[in-house]
């Protein structure tokens, strides 16, 4: 099972721009390297990252073989209302991981 680290403020003022940083532990094997036996190592990458804020997608990205192991993604969004941010990673070999974080929004 993957281990995700998410850094974001637990609270913000309505309309405030917040930074969100997400890192997930994953080897990201490209499929181009060969193992000790001389055979190609099978590809195993995270292909997609999505962040939803109260069910609405606010950020998404497609990842490819050129991304390093343990991919780190940083982005910004606007705090509009209190709720849940859901972070999802999908990849090869049926890999899927989801984390949720709460955000409390106060009046401006």
From TrEMBL:
This is Thiosulfate oxidation carrier complex protein SoxZ. It comes from Duganella callida. The gene is soxZ. NCBIfam families: SoxZ_true. It comes from the Bacteria. Transmembrane segments: none annotated. Residues 9-101 form the Sulphur oxidation protein SoxZ domain. SUPFAM superfamilies: E set domains (SSF81296).
């Amino acid at each position: 099972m993957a281990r995700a680290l998410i850094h974001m403020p637990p609270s913000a003022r309505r309309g405030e721009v917040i930074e969100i940083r997400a890192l997930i532990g994953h080897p990201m094997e490209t499929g181009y390297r060969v193992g000790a036996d001389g055979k190609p190592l099978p590809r195993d990458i995270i292909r997609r990252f999505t962040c939803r804020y109260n069910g609405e997608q606010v950020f998404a990205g497609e990842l490819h073989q050129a991304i390093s192991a343990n991919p780190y993604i940083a982005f910004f969004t606007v705090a509009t209302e209190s709720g849940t941010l859901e972070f999802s990673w999908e990849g090869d070999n049926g890999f899927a991981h989801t984390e949720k974080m709460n955000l409390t929004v106060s009046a401006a």
